[in-house]
Amino acid sequence: MISRISVGVMALGLVLYIVLVAQRAYIMLTSGTPVGIILGIGLVVLPLIGIWALVREFQFGVAASRLIKRLEAEGLIPDDDVALTPSGRVAREAAPALIARYEHDAATDSTSWRAALRLAIVQDAAGQRKDARGSVRSAIRLARDAGE
Question: CA torsion angle for 36, 40, 42, 43 (degrees, to 10)?
């Protein structure tokens, strides 16, 4: 829930930024000077890139959340009994074996979004955020390809 609130705050901040930049872009575009027009165009393009990035992140979050809810409903969320740190992360010495097991499962069934998502959950619990994000992308792509 906290992450959804923080995403909402970030989106609201981006919208405010876009409104303010759009105002400045209008002023520069109507200035009539070549430099002002070029800067105005730049001020239009940069927020468009920001909007595109925000939309892609929302799509990623919605798709990942949907798949995680399905995995949870099927009772397939990893719940291995491994050593944890006080913060709840997988202990450093237990992480390689656990990740290797789920990587093997994902490699064995390379068309299963469930296996890719289970790997992502374990990678995230072990603190490997970048790898986990890649595995979630793979799970989303596999689910989409399977028509789910």
Answer: 130
